[in-house]
Amino acid sequence: xxxxxxxxxxxxxxxxxxxxxxxxxxxxxxxxxxxxxxxxxxxxxxxxxxxxxxxxxxxxxxxxxxxxxxxxxxxxxxxxxxxxxxxxxxxxxxxxxxxxxxxxxxxxxxxxxxxxxxxxxxxxxxxxxxxxxxxxxxxxxxxxxxxxxxxxxxxxxxxxxxxxxxxxxxxxxxxxxxxxxxxxxxxxxxxxxxxxxxxxxxxxxxxxxxxxxxxxxxxxxxxxxxxxxxxxxxxxxxxxxxxxxxxxxxxxxxxxxxxxxxxxxxxxxxxxxxxxxxxxxxxxxxxxxxxxxxxxxxxxxxxxxxxxxxxxx
Length: 313
Prior knowledge:
Elements: E1 10-12, H1 20-27, E2 33-34, E3 53-54, E4 68-69, E5 84-88, H2 96-105, E6 110-115, H3 118-129, H4 139-148, H5 161-165, H6 170-180, E7 185-189, H7 190-195, H8 197-208, E8 227-228, H9 232-238, H10 242-251, H11 255-267, E9 272-273, H12 282-291, H13 293-300, E10 311-312
Protein backbone atom coordinates (compact mmCIF):
# COMPACT_ATOMS: atom_id res chain seq x y z
CA UNK A 1 0.00 0.00 0.00
CA UNK A 2 1.44 3.34 -1.05
CA UNK A 3 1.70 5.97 1.69
CA UNK A 4 2.20 9.70 1.13
CA UNK A 5 2.86 12.32 3.82
CA UNK A 6 3.18 15.35 1.51
CA UNK A 7 -0.52 15.83 0.86
CA UNK A 8 -2.08 18.49 -1.41
CA UNK A 9 -2.94 21.61 0.55
CA UNK A 10 -4.11 23.90 -2.28
CA UNK A 11 -7.37 22.48 -3.56
CA UNK A 12 -9.23 23.45 -6.72
CA UNK A 13 -12.53 21.78 -5.89
CA UNK A 14 -14.83 22.91 -8.69
CA UNK A 15 -17.41 23.40 -9.92
CA UNK A 16 -16.76 21.41 -13.12
CA UNK A 17 -16.25 23.37 -16.35
CA UNK A 18 -15.63 26.59 -14.44
CA UNK A 19 -11.98 27.35 -15.15
CA UNK A 20 -10.19 24.92 -12.82
CA UNK A 21 -8.05 23.51 -15.65
CA UNK A 22 -6.73 26.92 -16.66
CA UNK A 23 -6.06 27.90 -13.04
CA UNK A 24 -4.19 24.65 -12.46
CA UNK A 25 -2.11 25.08 -15.60
CA UNK A 26 -1.08 28.61 -14.67
CA UNK A 27 -0.60 28.14 -10.95
CA UNK A 28 1.48 24.98 -11.14
CA UNK A 29 4.12 26.94 -13.06
CA UNK A 30 4.87 29.05 -9.98
CA UNK A 31 8.11 27.82 -8.32
CA UNK A 32 6.40 27.61 -4.92
CA UNK A 33 3.51 25.44 -6.17
CA UNK A 34 4.02 21.76 -6.91
CA UNK A 35 1.60 19.59 -8.87
CA UNK A 36 2.14 15.88 -8.13
CA UNK A 37 0.09 14.83 -11.16
CA UNK A 38 2.04 16.98 -13.60
CA UNK A 39 2.98 14.01 -15.77
CA UNK A 40 -0.67 13.48 -16.73
CA UNK A 41 -2.18 15.48 -19.63
CA UNK A 42 -3.67 18.66 -18.18
CA UNK A 43 -7.18 17.85 -19.41
CA UNK A 44 -7.15 14.54 -17.49
CA UNK A 45 -5.29 15.61 -14.37
CA UNK A 46 -8.16 15.33 -11.90
CA UNK A 47 -6.87 13.14 -9.08
CA UNK A 48 -9.99 12.76 -6.95
CA UNK A 49 -7.64 11.83 -4.12
CA UNK A 50 -10.27 12.64 -1.48
CA UNK A 51 -12.82 10.39 -3.19
CA UNK A 52 -10.69 7.24 -3.27
CA UNK A 53 -12.47 4.00 -2.44
CA UNK A 54 -16.02 2.93 -3.21
CA UNK A 55 -17.95 5.81 -4.79
CA UNK A 56 -20.67 7.09 -2.48
CA UNK A 57 -22.13 9.36 -5.15
CA UNK A 58 -22.72 8.88 -8.92
CA UNK A 59 -20.05 11.37 -10.00
CA UNK A 60 -20.67 10.76 -13.71
CA UNK A 61 -22.66 8.41 -15.96
CA UNK A 62 -19.57 6.19 -16.11
CA UNK A 63 -18.96 6.29 -12.31
CA UNK A 64 -22.14 5.14 -10.54
CA UNK A 65 -22.37 4.50 -6.80
CA UNK A 66 -20.31 1.43 -5.93
CA UNK A 67 -17.58 2.10 -8.50
CA UNK A 68 -14.06 1.61 -7.14
CA UNK A 69 -12.30 4.97 -7.54
CA UNK A 70 -8.51 4.90 -7.49
CA UNK A 71 -6.64 8.23 -7.59
CA UNK A 72 -4.11 8.69 -10.36
CA UNK A 73 -0.58 7.68 -9.42
CA UNK A 74 1.11 10.50 -7.55
CA UNK A 75 4.60 11.70 -8.48
CA UNK A 76 6.68 13.47 -5.83
CA UNK A 77 10.06 12.87 -7.47
CA UNK A 78 10.55 16.58 -8.15
CA UNK A 79 9.00 17.88 -4.96
CA UNK A 80 11.41 20.31 -3.25
CA UNK A 81 9.43 21.43 -0.22
CA UNK A 82 7.36 23.94 -2.14
CA UNK A 83 4.91 25.88 0.04
CA UNK A 84 1.87 24.56 -1.79
CA UNK A 85 0.95 21.21 -3.33
CA UNK A 86 -1.93 21.77 -5.73
CA UNK A 87 -4.74 19.45 -6.78
CA UNK A 88 -7.68 19.84 -9.14
CA UNK A 89 -10.73 17.66 -8.46
CA UNK A 90 -14.00 19.42 -9.36
CA UNK A 91 -16.18 16.70 -7.82
CA UNK A 92 -14.75 17.44 -4.35
CA UNK A 93 -17.13 20.39 -4.05
CA UNK A 94 -20.11 18.04 -3.81
CA UNK A 95 -18.60 15.41 -1.53
CA UNK A 96 -19.27 15.42 2.23
CA UNK A 97 -16.48 12.87 2.48
CA UNK A 98 -14.03 15.30 0.88
CA UNK A 99 -15.15 18.22 3.07
CA UNK A 100 -14.92 16.20 6.28
CA UNK A 101 -11.47 14.88 5.33
CA UNK A 102 -10.17 18.40 4.76
CA UNK A 103 -11.69 19.71 8.01
CA UNK A 104 -10.40 16.83 10.12
CA UNK A 105 -7.04 16.06 8.53
CA UNK A 106 -6.04 19.01 6.33
CA UNK A 107 -7.33 22.01 8.30
CA UNK A 108 -4.60 24.36 7.04
CA UNK A 109 -5.45 23.75 3.39
CA UNK A 110 -6.68 26.51 1.12
CA UNK A 111 -9.70 25.92 -1.10
CA UNK A 112 -10.52 27.59 -4.42
CA UNK A 113 -14.08 27.37 -5.78
CA UNK A 114 -14.90 28.52 -9.31
CA UNK A 115 -18.43 29.07 -10.59
CA UNK A 116 -20.40 29.98 -13.69
CA UNK A 117 -24.06 30.40 -14.64
CA UNK A 118 -25.80 27.10 -13.75
CA UNK A 119 -27.44 26.66 -17.16
CA UNK A 120 -24.10 27.24 -18.90
CA UNK A 121 -22.50 24.72 -16.54
CA UNK A 122 -25.16 22.13 -17.39
CA UNK A 123 -24.63 22.57 -21.13
CA UNK A 124 -20.84 22.70 -20.89
CA UNK A 125 -20.57 19.60 -18.73
CA UNK A 126 -22.79 17.69 -21.14
CA UNK A 127 -20.42 18.73 -23.92
CA UNK A 128 -17.43 17.66 -21.81
CA UNK A 129 -18.92 14.20 -21.25
CA UNK A 130 -19.47 13.82 -24.98
CA UNK A 131 -15.75 14.47 -25.55
CA UNK A 132 -15.03 11.05 -24.03
CA UNK A 133 -15.22 7.63 -25.63
CA UNK A 134 -17.74 6.08 -23.23
CA UNK A 135 -20.55 8.62 -23.48
CA UNK A 136 -22.65 9.45 -26.51
CA UNK A 137 -25.92 11.10 -25.49
CA UNK A 138 -27.42 14.10 -27.24
CA UNK A 139 -28.71 17.05 -25.25
CA UNK A 140 -32.29 16.22 -26.18
CA UNK A 141 -31.83 12.60 -25.10
CA UNK A 142 -30.50 13.82 -21.76
CA UNK A 143 -33.46 16.17 -21.29
CA UNK A 144 -35.83 13.29 -22.11
CA UNK A 145 -34.21 11.14 -19.42
CA UNK A 146 -34.51 13.96 -16.89
CA UNK A 147 -38.15 14.57 -17.73
CA UNK A 148 -38.95 10.86 -17.28
CA UNK A 149 -37.83 11.30 -13.67
CA UNK A 150 -39.79 14.53 -13.31
CA UNK A 151 -36.62 16.60 -12.86
CA UNK A 152 -35.75 14.86 -9.59
CA UNK A 153 -32.16 14.17 -8.55
CA UNK A 154 -31.97 10.41 -8.16
CA UNK A 155 -28.82 8.94 -6.60
CA UNK A 156 -29.63 5.63 -8.25
CA UNK A 157 -29.46 7.16 -11.73
CA UNK A 158 -25.92 8.23 -12.71
CA UNK A 159 -27.21 9.30 -16.13
CA UNK A 160 -29.05 12.27 -14.67
CA UNK A 161 -27.87 12.90 -11.08
CA UNK A 162 -24.61 14.74 -11.88
CA UNK A 163 -26.23 16.92 -14.54
CA UNK A 164 -28.91 18.07 -12.10
CA UNK A 165 -26.61 18.30 -9.06
CA UNK A 166 -23.49 20.08 -10.32
CA UNK A 167 -25.29 23.31 -11.34
CA UNK A 168 -27.05 23.34 -7.93
CA UNK A 169 -23.86 24.31 -6.18
CA UNK A 170 -24.99 27.07 -3.78
CA UNK A 171 -25.55 24.88 -0.72
CA UNK A 172 -22.20 23.14 -1.25
CA UNK A 173 -20.34 26.44 -1.64
CA UNK A 174 -21.87 27.79 1.56
CA UNK A 175 -21.06 24.57 3.40
CA UNK A 176 -17.35 24.74 2.49
CA UNK A 177 -17.17 28.41 3.50
CA UNK A 178 -19.01 27.84 6.76
CA UNK A 179 -16.94 24.84 7.84
CA UNK A 180 -13.54 25.92 6.52
CA UNK A 181 -13.82 29.59 7.48
CA UNK A 182 -13.59 32.69 5.33
CA UNK A 183 -9.77 32.84 5.55
CA UNK A 184 -9.35 29.43 3.91
CA UNK A 185 -11.73 29.72 0.93
CA UNK A 186 -11.86 31.85 -2.20
CA UNK A 187 -14.68 31.93 -4.75
CA UNK A 188 -14.07 33.06 -8.33
CA UNK A 189 -16.50 33.46 -11.21
CA UNK A 190 -15.43 32.03 -14.55
CA UNK A 191 -16.04 35.40 -16.17
CA UNK A 192 -13.39 36.95 -13.89
CA UNK A 193 -10.87 34.29 -14.95
CA UNK A 194 -11.67 34.86 -18.63
CA UNK A 195 -11.76 38.67 -18.48
CA UNK A 196 -8.71 39.37 -16.32
CA UNK A 197 -6.73 36.24 -15.40
CA UNK A 198 -3.75 38.34 -14.28
CA UNK A 199 -5.85 40.14 -11.68
CA UNK A 200 -7.20 36.81 -10.43
CA UNK A 201 -3.70 35.34 -10.10
CA UNK A 202 -2.42 38.45 -8.35
CA UNK A 203 -5.24 38.17 -5.80
CA UNK A 204 -4.54 34.48 -5.26
CA UNK A 205 -0.83 35.13 -4.81
CA UNK A 206 -1.53 37.77 -2.18
CA UNK A 207 -3.81 35.31 -0.36
CA UNK A 208 -1.20 32.53 -0.56
CA UNK A 209 1.73 34.82 0.29
CA UNK A 210 3.42 34.19 -3.07
CA UNK A 211 5.39 36.42 -5.42
CA UNK A 212 2.91 37.20 -8.22
CA UNK A 213 5.72 38.14 -10.65
CA UNK A 214 6.66 34.45 -10.81
CA UNK A 215 3.36 33.45 -12.33
CA UNK A 216 3.60 32.66 -16.08
CA UNK A 217 3.28 35.38 -18.71
CA UNK A 218 1.26 33.25 -21.11
CA UNK A 219 -2.28 33.03 -19.71
CA UNK A 220 -4.05 31.34 -22.59
CA UNK A 221 -7.23 29.46 -21.72
CA UNK A 222 -6.97 25.66 -21.42
CA UNK A 223 -9.52 22.87 -21.90
CA UNK A 224 -11.58 24.68 -24.50
CA UNK A 225 -14.47 23.08 -26.32
CA UNK A 226 -14.35 20.60 -29.16
CA UNK A 227 -14.92 16.94 -29.89
CA UNK A 228 -12.69 13.95 -30.39
CA UNK A 229 -11.38 13.54 -33.92
CA UNK A 230 -13.10 10.85 -35.98
CA UNK A 231 -9.88 10.08 -37.82
CA UNK A 232 -9.69 6.27 -38.06
CA UNK A 233 -6.14 6.09 -36.74
CA UNK A 234 -6.98 8.28 -33.75
CA UNK A 235 -10.10 6.20 -33.03
CA UNK A 236 -7.95 3.07 -33.16
CA UNK A 237 -5.45 4.58 -30.70
CA UNK A 238 -8.23 5.54 -28.30
CA UNK A 239 -9.79 2.09 -28.23
CA UNK A 240 -7.56 -0.63 -29.72
CA UNK A 241 -8.92 -4.18 -30.09
CA UNK A 242 -8.26 -6.54 -27.16
CA UNK A 243 -5.87 -8.49 -29.37
CA UNK A 244 -3.51 -5.51 -29.43
CA UNK A 245 -3.31 -5.50 -25.62
CA UNK A 246 -2.74 -9.27 -25.59
CA UNK A 247 0.14 -8.97 -28.04
CA UNK A 248 1.64 -6.05 -26.11
CA UNK A 249 1.54 -8.01 -22.84
CA UNK A 250 3.17 -10.99 -24.54
CA UNK A 251 6.13 -9.06 -25.95
CA UNK A 252 6.39 -6.49 -23.13
CA UNK A 253 5.54 -8.25 -19.82
CA UNK A 254 6.49 -5.22 -17.71
CA UNK A 255 3.48 -2.93 -17.19
CA UNK A 256 5.70 0.06 -16.43
CA UNK A 257 7.64 -0.49 -19.63
CA UNK A 258 4.39 -0.74 -21.63
CA UNK A 259 3.24 2.56 -20.14
CA UNK A 260 6.51 4.26 -21.09
CA UNK A 261 6.33 2.96 -24.67
CA UNK A 262 2.63 3.05 -25.48
CA UNK A 263 1.06 5.83 -23.38
CA UNK A 264 2.64 8.66 -25.44
CA UNK A 265 1.48 6.91 -28.63
CA UNK A 266 -2.07 6.40 -27.40
CA UNK A 267 -2.34 10.01 -26.25
CA UNK A 268 -2.22 11.02 -29.91
CA UNK A 269 -5.68 9.50 -30.20
CA UNK A 270 -7.14 12.17 -27.93
CA UNK A 271 -7.04 14.92 -30.51
CA UNK A 272 -9.86 17.44 -30.15
CA UNK A 273 -11.15 19.32 -33.16
CA UNK A 274 -13.25 22.51 -33.13
CA UNK A 275 -16.98 22.02 -33.35
CA UNK A 276 -20.01 24.25 -33.21
CA UNK A 277 -21.79 24.40 -29.89
CA UNK A 278 -25.02 22.46 -29.84
CA UNK A 279 -27.93 24.84 -30.23
CA UNK A 280 -30.26 24.85 -27.28
CA UNK A 281 -33.98 25.04 -28.10
CA UNK A 282 -35.57 28.00 -26.27
CA UNK A 283 -38.05 25.70 -24.52
CA UNK A 284 -35.18 23.59 -23.12
CA UNK A 285 -33.32 26.66 -21.90
CA UNK A 286 -36.51 27.88 -20.23
CA UNK A 287 -36.93 24.56 -18.41
CA UNK A 288 -33.31 24.64 -17.22
CA UNK A 289 -33.65 28.24 -16.08
CA UNK A 290 -36.74 27.39 -14.04
CA UNK A 291 -35.17 24.31 -12.48
CA UNK A 292 -31.93 26.09 -11.55
CA UNK A 293 -33.69 29.32 -10.55
CA UNK A 294 -32.35 29.47 -6.98
CA UNK A 295 -28.76 28.85 -8.02
CA UNK A 296 -28.99 31.34 -10.88
CA UNK A 297 -30.05 33.93 -8.32
CA UNK A 298 -27.16 32.86 -6.08
CA UNK A 299 -24.70 33.26 -8.93
CA UNK A 300 -26.08 36.54 -10.26
CA UNK A 301 -26.13 38.12 -6.80
CA UNK A 302 -23.30 36.22 -5.19
CA UNK A 303 -22.14 39.27 -3.22
CA UNK A 304 -25.38 38.99 -1.22
CA UNK A 305 -24.87 35.32 -0.38
CA UNK A 306 -21.22 34.91 0.61
CA UNK A 307 -18.87 37.06 2.73
CA UNK A 308 -17.24 39.80 0.59
CA UNK A 309 -13.72 38.76 1.64
CA UNK A 310 -14.22 35.34 0.05
CA UNK A 311 -15.00 36.60 -3.47
CA UNK A 312 -12.25 37.36 -5.98
CA UNK A 313 -13.86 39.54 -8.63
